[in-house]
Structures are given as structure tokens and as C-alpha cells.
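FW: tagging you since you asked about this chain on Friday. Here's the raw sequence from the shared folder, copied in full. Didn't touch anything.
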Amino acid sequence: MEFSGTVSIDGTTTEEVWLALSDPVMIKQALPGCQFLVECEDEDPDFDALAASAPEEDPPTLPEASAEDIAERAFEEGGHYAALMEISVGSVSPSFETVVTIEEREFPRMHAAGEGSASSSSFEMSSGMELAESEDGVDVEWWAEADVFGRVAQMGQRVINPVANRVVGRFFDQVEKQLQDVSTDSESSGGLRSRVSSLF
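HL: got it, structure written out here
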């Protein structure tokens, strides 16, 4: 399955969007059904231990969090990140233990690949994004490829595609809302914009 699209965010800068989309906390909050998203040392982590150690409350994201704090916890090229994702597909709601590796992260492009497994299903995915300045702000050009196996795959693309489109749609709706909040904060105060710009 292949997906792609462009999300346009008005009144913001590529640096602000890059910082927001580099924040594991914001990505976790934007992903439907994501229970946690944390950095791990390798590609075979102990998910029970990670779940037990995950914070009960997320730290603040932009615009409340400082640009420096987000830069400190941002995705790193070559880093591995574990997530527990619960996704409803037809009559089942598997919880996928997922590990994603950031294969490329160089402003303004990021590329990640990963795989996830549940009791009777699994998937492999690759995704990427590139930021481009637009007349009114920033365009986020994104793409994703995914292969699904097992019980979920047996349901067929007529069931899977609407679910995948819903997950992608909700994710970018939430991302856009978050970035609009960043844009509004930047317009009301030059402080955030100057702090973000100083990191680049």
C-alpha cells in the first residue's frame, strides 16, 4: 500500500515545523491508538519493561515547551524508537509492538522505516517527509509505504485501505492543529520564533 500527500501550514516557518515533527512526544500524541513512543537501545526491546517505565503524563510540546527541550529529545538519525499501537481493523483491534528506525534526518528531510507485530498480524513500513517553504507558510510533503501480513492482511485492501487512510488523516489533522498553535504563538510573540531560529 502506498500513500502520499501534502499538508500546508500557514503562518509558520520550516524551522518551527521541523522542530515540531522531530518531537517524539508530539508524534505520539498525534498517532491514533499510540500508547507510548520511546527511544530504545536496539531493534528488539522489552515492550513490557518499556510500558512500565513510560511516563503517565506527557511532557509539554510546542508552543508550551522550550525549543531547547524539544531539540534535546528530538529524533536522532540512526536511533530506534519503540511504540505500542492499537489499531481497529474490522472486527479486531490488534496491539502492534512497533520499532521504527530513523534512517535519515537532515533538515528539511526525514526518512524512517519500521515493523510491527501483534499476535496474529504484522506489518512493515517505510515513510518520509520533506518541508518546503510556500507563499503562506510551509508545505509538508509526505509519503508512506506499508505491507501487512497475517490475519489483518486476510481482510483485504477494501477493509485495510479505509483504516490506513483514517489513521493517516487523523495524524495529520492533529499535526496541523499543533502547528497552527505554534504559528499563533509565534505571531503573538517573537520569542518562540527567535528561540527556534537560533537552533538552526
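FW: The two ends are 35 Å apart (CA to CA).
HL: agreed, and The longest strand covers residues 137-150.
FW: great, closing this out.
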